[in-house]
Design a protein that fits this description.
- There is one protein chain.
- The protein is 35% helix and 15% strand.
- The chain has 14 helices and 17 strands.
- The strands form 4 sheets. The protein has a 6-stranded parallel β-sheet, with helices on both faces. A 6-stranded parallel β-sheet has the order 11-10-9-15-16-17, sandwiched between helices. The chain has a 3-stranded antiparallel β-sheet with strand order 13-12-14.
- Helix 7 (203-216) crosses helix 13 (377-385).
- The longest helix has 15 residues, at 41-55.
- The model has no long low-confidence stretch (mean pLDDT 94).
Length: 404
């Protein structure tokens, strides 16, 4: 495991778990297809912590949310996850009859060292997102210790990510620990030049990250629909492009901050346009960034893609979060593909902040070609921005002895 970055919380590696029941909050929010797991990437990411606990003789109770159910939705049961996890572990993974309650407690008590029990979808419980005390108490009643390995949900103060951590000795899982170390290494002492590539739709989602990187990065390359808020702030025509109106003033502020900083904030110099957000819309190359009425910008242009690829190739550290355009539409995927291929090809340290940029790497078959692909899009951005993550803050500090 990398020792880069900073992490001041107690690690599961240092916990005394033999013969004890450990509640593990994992991020098993995977896509389902025809009643089975469609992509097991997140399940595989949770395996190192689970296997460590099994090797050390712990009884393991796993919990996670899955999708956005409205109540006890059988279509979003954890049953397919339990089946796939069992296949990967080579052992039966029992599915609990619910999230909390007498039946679940009985199932947890019946575990033997090395056994794994998976609770039902935590979001079947209305108290999960509300961080309800009764639900946190019920989860705490299942175990002797708590481990949070769900970095992708660590920015949420939910009962299973924050509330229960105040009721049991609470440790960081291996994945969560490495996520924080890898991401904070970009901030602490990156090899330079540090090039940051930011895309996606909303400036307001990333303005804190932009402002943070203006202080420490050498270059920030902007793509995606968020560039149109910047263009509007500069007075350019944006046609029918997706423009976040609330993002125009933050974009203007970022441009002003960049003018007084040592970091170059760079915008596209050409675009690919379409008459509609559709794979059937014929791509039109625009030599410049003015978008006429009746057209919308759907990708960065070829000159911009080449310039961004060159900037990435010259970097020693790269952080990427957000696609350069509507990569889900094949005619408008070239910009995102160019960035993905440049990130994959460079010898620099490459950190990809999950979310759609991670999905793009997977789609292009390049997910294994980067130094670190985060499992948490929103959590990674909040950590980079400098916000406290409730699911991390609630854990025990490193060096603090567990109360007996």
């Amino acid at each position: 495991m990398s020792e880069k970055g900073r992490f001041g919380k107690a690690s599961v590696r240092d916990a005394d778990v033999a013969g004890r029941t450990v509640l593990v909050r994992a991020d098993l929010n995977v896509p389902l297809a025809d009643g089975a797991v469609g992509d097991d990437t997140r399940i595989r990411a949770a395996l190192p912590t689970i296997e460590l606990l099994r090797e050390r003789g712990a009884r393991i109770v796993l919990c996670s949310h899955l999708g956005r159910p409205k109540g006890r939705d059988p279509e979003l049961s954890m049953a397919p996850v339990a089946a796939r996890l069992g296949e990967l572990l080579g052992t039966d993974v029992a599915l609990a009859p619910g999230v909390v309650g007498a039946g679940v407690e009985a199932a947890a008590r019946a575990l033997e060292p090395g056994d794994v029990l998976l609770l039902e979808n935590t979001r079947w419980e209305p108290g999960e997102k509300a961080n309800d005390d009764a639900l946190a108490d019920g989860l705490a009643a299942l175990a002797d210790l708590y481990v949070n390995d769900a970095f992708g949900a660590a920015h949420r103060a939910h009962a299973s990510t924050e509330g229960v951590a105040h009721r049991l000795p609470a440790y960081a899982g291996l994945l969560l620990e490495q996520e924080v170390r890898e991401l904070t290494s970009v901030l602490d002492d990156p090899d330079r030049p540090l090039v940051v590539v930011l895309g996606g739709a909303k400036v307001t989602d990333k303005i804190g990250v932009i402002e943070r990187f203006l202080e420490i990065a050498d270059r920030i390359l902007i793509g995606g629909a968020m560039c149109f808020s910047f263009f509007r702030a500069q007075g350019h025509a944006t046609g029918d492009s997706l423009v976040e109106e609330d993002g125009i003033e933050p974009a203007r502020r970022a441009l002003e901050l960049a003018a007084g900083s040592d970091c170059d904030l760079e915008l596209p110099t050409d675009l690919v346009l379409g008459a509609s957000f559709s794979a059937d819309a014929g791509p039109v190359a625009a030599d410049g960034v003015e978008v006429p009425d009746g057209m919308m910008g759907l990708d960065i242009g070829a000159a911009t893609a080449s310039a961004y690829a060159d900037a990435i190739a010259a970097a020693r550290t790269v952080f990427w979060n957000g696609p350069m355009g509507a990569f889900e539409l094949p005619p408008f995927a070239a910009g995102t593909r160019a960035v993905a291929e440049a990130v994959a090809a460079t010898d620099a340290t490459t950190i990809v902040g999950g979310g759609d940029s991670g999905a793009a790497l997977v789609e292009f078959g390049l997910a294994g070609e980067v130094s670190w692909l985060s499992t948490g899009g929103g959590a990674s951005l909040e950590l980079i921005e400098g916000k406290a993550l409730p699911g991390v803050e609630a854990l025990r500090d490193a060096g603090v002895e567990e109360e007996s």
